[in-house]
């Protein structure tokens, strides 16, 4: 679970292409959100979508999910048009903390990822037969995968942000998706939880060959794990492996302010001076 | 009627020997099961205010129907369903962004609808001269007025609503807790929300005719609120909500039979007592469980 392999080392040469964007632009309300984004993501790759507020990071994810129309370019998701294979995509939207008064267990929230979209009600316990047993097994497996066994049966509103985030990741993983789309999963977490949730995502990505598309404000917690990054800023986009994109020159140009990229003693990249690295109020 | 004695069996036999009491119990049971089940989702979705609005919208509906000389039942159902569609069509911040842990509602907008509906009700009462004697019945209900035909109509409406609720089932729960993920998974969140509000309107209309407009809300919200204090599991929570609703209705009707005070008061008071007990039970259990669980409550988390 905790083995952290260096980025780019375990990818099979011919890993299946999960996601392909070519020259994608999105216009909303007469305003160009971003333009000419091209990206290819293969199974087991960890890709971060980075950039300042309001540049359309979430919009890009919604376009991949088929929830946001594009104005130019093509998107292929798992070999089909966006929205066609959403049952093979695990999705975690942005800014998700449950109200403390929400009286529903973590287990139930995870279970919704399995059969929450099917009409009708699930029969209780022993009347549910093989389907019910499978559902319970998958719920248990997903909860174990994120290490949430000790608190999954408590009401989700009473759990901490990190615990909620792990259960929501379990919900997103329960159908064994080929693509995991996470919108700011580290936002609103403390530093320790940011590190452990990042490591969890990386471990799932590598061991289950799930492609991950993750939006983040602050690149530092996930930087060691990334195979590719895509920076969106002011209508433009820069894409590539982190060593090429995350340089002082590129980031300073994108953000329009001085940003330093340093290497720490172990050779890891650290981004300093990047604006918006902390959660702030958004409309 | 010989009044209350200490022989409970004889009391129940006496109570059941009156046809009007039998009908009141039948109608009360149907209303309780319906309100307990739909109320559970209403509380989960944080749509209590919408539920309250739909409950009181029955009043102008019935008053308007009386003024026009058509059946009050038509007024109740017509206004409640129309109200549900209006609330569903209104823009709500929660519905647009897909809030977590309940859909949320635009309370100011819903409140505006409610105020307007009540004003219309008052106008209809004024337009229909001499209606005022029935006003108390419309608002607070009466135990004696339920006919066989009404019970059958209620049974049909109630069975239909419960069947529809069962079909909505998991997608309704999913979109109540996590609308955005449900939408990404292909659940027609908007449609499910509208269908639920219509069911809520139908349940409110059916129940209004028995308990009166103002006290429907007691059966919709209180048993569900009590049940959600007792358990965080959806299945047992729904069941408990129904059981509590049925229990307080039966007890309330029984007590009202032997007392000079109205049924609505007794049902509401018993439901309130059940809620207080549930709240006390949960606090006691949390306090007792916390030191043992070795899992402290998160302090200063992200909320």
Explain how this protein is built.
- The complex is a heterodimer of chains A (283) and B (303).
- Chain A is α/β, with parallel strands linked by helices and 283 residues long.
- Chain A is built from seven helices and eleven strands.
- Chain A is globular, with a radius of gyration of 19 Å.
- Chain A starts with 16 loop residues before the first strand and ends in an 11-residue tail after the last strand.
- In chain B, helix 2 (19-44) runs parallel beside helix 8.
Largest interface, counted by CB within 8 Å of the partner chain's CB: A-B, 46 and 37 residues
Main beta sheet of chain A: 6 strands, mixed
> In the CATH hierarchy, what is the class of the domain at 21-213 in chain B?
Mainly Alpha
- What is the CATH homology-level superfamily of the domain at 21-213 in chain B? ABC transporter involved in vitamin B12 uptake, BtuC
Topology-level CATH name of the domain at 21-213 in chain B: ABC transporter involved in vitamin B12 uptake, BtuC
Largest sheet of chain B: none
Cα end-to-end separation of chain B: 58 Å
Specify the helix fraction band of chain B: over 70%
The total of beta strands of chain A comes to 11
Percent of sequence in beta strands of chain A: 15-25%
| Number of individual domains of chain A | 1
> What's the helix-strand series of chain B?
HHHHHHHHHHHHH
Write down the overall geometry of chain A.
globular
């Amino acid at each position: 679970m905790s083995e952290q392999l260096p980025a780019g080392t375990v990818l099979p040469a011919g890993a299946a292409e999960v996601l392909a964007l070519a020259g994608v632009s999105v216009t909303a309300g007469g305003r160009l959100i971003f333009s000419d984004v091209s990206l290819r993501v293969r199974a087991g790759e960890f890709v971060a979508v980075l950039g300042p507020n309001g540049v359309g990071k979430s919009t890009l994810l919604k376009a991949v999910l088929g929830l946001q129309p594009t104005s130019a370019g093509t998107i292929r998701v798992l070999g089909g048009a966006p929205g066609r294979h959403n049952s093979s995509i695990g999705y975690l939207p942005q800014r998700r903390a449950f109200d403390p008064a929400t009286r529903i267990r973590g287990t139930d929230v995870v279970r919704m990822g399995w059969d929450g979209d099917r009409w009708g009600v699930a029969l209780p316990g022993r009347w549910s037969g093989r389907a019910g047993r499978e559902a319970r097994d998958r719920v248990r497996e997903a909860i174990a995968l994120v290490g949430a066994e000790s608190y999954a049966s408590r009401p989700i509103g009473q759990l901490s942000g990190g615990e909620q985030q792990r259960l929501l990741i379990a919900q997103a993983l329960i159908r064994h998706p080929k693509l995991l789309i996470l919108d700011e999963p580290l936002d609103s977490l403390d530093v320790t939880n940011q590190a452990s949730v990042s490591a969890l995502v990386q471990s799932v990505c590598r061991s289950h060959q799930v492609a991950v598309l993750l939006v983040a404000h602050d690149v530092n917690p996930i930087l060691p794990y990334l195979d590719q990054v895509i920076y969106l800023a002011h209508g433009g986009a820069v894409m590539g492996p982190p060593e090429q994109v995350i340089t002082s020159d590129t980031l300073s140009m994108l953000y329009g302010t001085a940003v330093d990229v340093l290497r720490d003693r172990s050779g890891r990249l650290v981004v300093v001076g990047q604006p918006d690295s902390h959660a702030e109020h958004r409309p | 009627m010989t009044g209350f004695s200490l022989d409970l069996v004889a009391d129940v036999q006496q109570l059941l020997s009156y046809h009007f009491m039998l009908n009141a119990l039948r109608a009360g049971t149907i209303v309780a099961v319906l309100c307990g089940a739909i109320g559970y989702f209403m509380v989960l979705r944080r749509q209590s205010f919408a539920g309250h609005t739909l409950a009181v919208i029955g009043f102008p509906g019935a008053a308007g129907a009386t003024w026009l000389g058509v059946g009050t039942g038509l007024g109740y159902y017509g206004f409640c369903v129309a109200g549900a569609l209006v609330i569903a069509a209104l823009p709500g911040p929660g519905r647009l962004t897909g809030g977590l842990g309940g859909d949320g509602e635009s309370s100011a907008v819903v409140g505006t609808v409610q105020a307007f509906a009540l004003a219309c009700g008052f106008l209809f009462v004024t337009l229909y001269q001499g209606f005022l004697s029935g006003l108390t019945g419309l608002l607070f209900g009466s135990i004696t007025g339920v006919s066989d035909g009404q019970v059958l109509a209620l049974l049909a409406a109630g069975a239909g609503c419960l069947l529809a609720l069962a079909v909505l089932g998991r997608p309704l729960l999913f979109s109540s807790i996590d609308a955005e993920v449900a939408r990404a998974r292909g659940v027609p969140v908007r449609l499910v929300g509208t269908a639920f509000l219509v069911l809520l309107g139908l349940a409110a209309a059916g129940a209004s005719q028995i308990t009166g407009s103002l006290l429907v809300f007691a059966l919709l919200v209180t048993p569900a609120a009590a049940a959600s204090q007792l358990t965080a599991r959806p299945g047992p929570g729904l069941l408990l909500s129904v059981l509590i609703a049925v229990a307080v209705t039966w007890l309330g009707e029984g007590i009202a039979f032997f007392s000079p005070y109205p049924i609505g008061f007794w049902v509401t008071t018993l439901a309130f007592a059940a809620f207080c007990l549930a709240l006390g039970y949960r606090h006691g259990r949390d306090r007792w469980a916390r030191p043992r669980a070795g899992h402290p409550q998160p302090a200063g988390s992200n909320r």
